[in-house]
Amino acid sequence: MREALNGHLSVLHVESAHPNDTMQTGETVGQWRLNLKNELERNHFDPHRANKYSGYVYDAIWVYAYALDQLIKQNKSYIQDIHSERSMNKFVEIINNIDFKGVTGRINFINGPSRLSNIRIIQWFGNETHEIGVYEPEYNRQTSTGIKGRLIEWNAHKLRWQTLNHRKPKDHAKHCSILSSFATSLDIECEHAISIAFLIGFGTLLGIILFIFVIVKRRYERKMRQTEERMRALGLLTPTSVLTLDEWEIHRDRVVLNRKLGEGAFGTVYGGEAFFDEKGWVAVAVKTLKTGVCTRNEPVYTVMEFMLYGDLKTYLLARRHLVNEINREELDEVSNRRLTSMALDVAKGLAYLADLKYVHRDIACRNCLVNSSRIVKLADFGMTRPMYENDYYRFNRKGMLPVRWMSPESLADGLFTPMSDVWSYGVLLYEMITFGSFPFQGLSNNQVLEHVKAGNTLSIPSGIKAQLETLLKSCWNIASTKRPTAAEIAELLTNNARLISPCIDVPLASVVVERTDSLELIPSVRKPSGSVSQTNRPVLLYAAGKRNRINEDSNTAPYSPMSIYPPSITSPNNFRLDLKDLKEPLISYSNNIGLHNNNNINSKNSHNVSGGGVGTSSSYVPPGYIVLDHTANGGGLIPDMASPI
């Protein structure tokens, strides 16, 4: 019988709470037992008379005393007839709701005489008992979810097994030591804990994949929207298909070509007329591309508005002699009203680009074209860049830039914003006021770079209106945030229709003297302009008259159909004109001798049509441009040549 009983487990209520547990009186159980022993000794009782039942008696008295106190506090009438059924029922109800820590543990009854107390887990072995662990039950009276609990003490090493080797038998029971705390917290079996953990892990992985998919999808959609907006802005998107341009195409029989304007690396530009349903026959410039890119028949025609008066700089230089006429205001071509209207057209164009979040980066008179109605339109968008969600475009590589028209932040940091275009607009106003004067005359490009970065600006011509002087100074404010917007400038010019007035000193030499290689200068009568020093050194040109070299270059120079000029020079000897030692030019030769971002004249009686582009093999640097390096390792100025950006 003793062998049969060896190893069996039993449970008992704990006889006393832990000595460090605090009772309802504020003292610990250990202090209470010490006080009880001292009290017995003081009254000359044997201390051993305080046995395990002393705590039960103490807690029972406290239960009745606490219940009676609550009964009196609720209604004193219960005391008048304490033995009545009404009083007893209320008394029992109060006892059932009692919950406090006593000497023997937690005093809390569960709808009956039994109370919740810690349970000892005991193993009987060899006629001795060994405490294996202690279980603490929990009961939620509000939710009535039943009795739950937890092991507050477990001594597995004290557990003895009745096997031959006295070790735990290997019965292939599932072991979930990793998820044991998880299973215990949910009060579920190990198998259920593994299943729930697997579902949670799978759901987490699925959520991460879904999150990544949503992020990638949003980025893709944002990129597609940006691409669609750019294509729509370029007129390459129709409601039906991106691959077809039927909405924008013109029937070939509605286009008539009547003269050749120029030829470049990518095709030929013709002058002609096109028929439109709304306007009838309109003068146009037609650019023909190389074969292989048209949607219907070869070659494809690109039809654009024909700008009769060419670029604004040539327009101003050609009419410079009219400024000193007595009846200048009666001449619509050079009147204050006309000049202000032209400046207003450019300001509106800049405001339009700013609204579309584009920065032009090359605002100058040479890049503004004048149509037959003398309306000025921005052109040469080869350097235009989108800003997308930012408010700026950062140039972080090396390339050829128009240093004389650039703002300090663009020169120093390669930072281009609509406000840097406003700075360039101020230089354009200077060109208009002086009727084509070259900015920063007397300074080389390198000197201009350091001059502007040091906080200096162009010298404002004397004799201009105070309001116009204020406008120029605001456009050239060193702090870009303090410059006016293009829309504000347009509003100012609208309200002051005669604000722009010319201010010139003497005529500028703008043509090469026949059979010489120099410009005709008048340095002796040229008045100094402010702080900018003037020199008397002429700018030299040289002629390299090899016909075969011209023919080779005629197909390699880039051109732009938006930069179409009327005939300004003929070259009977088919000379190739290059700039040599160009350091202090007085004027922009690109507009005066028909060289617009190019260095060759194609053929007799044909004038140049070109624009800044990528991939040209020419080493020609337009006046006012300098090669800058804004890469991470760049040092600013690059002494050698680089391709235009």
Automatic annotation (TrEMBL):
GO terms for molecular function: ATP binding; transmembrane receptor protein tyrosine kinase activity. The chain crosses the membrane at residues 193-216. GO terms for biological process: cell surface receptor protein tyrosine kinase signaling pathway. It is a single-pass membrane protein. It catalyses: L-tyrosyl-[protein] + ATP = O-phospho-L-tyrosyl-[protein] + ADP + H(+). Keywords: ATP-binding, Membrane, Nucleotide-binding, Receptor, Transmembrane, Transmembrane helix. SMART domains: TyrKc. It is found in: Membrane. ATP binds at residue 287. GO terms for cellular component: plasma membrane; receptor complex. It holds the Pfam family PK_Tyr_Ser-Thr. Coiled coil: none annotated. This is Insulin receptor,Insulin receptor-related protein. It comes from Lepeophtheirus salmonis. The lineage of its organism: Eukaryota, Metazoa, Ecdysozoa, Arthropoda, Crustacea.
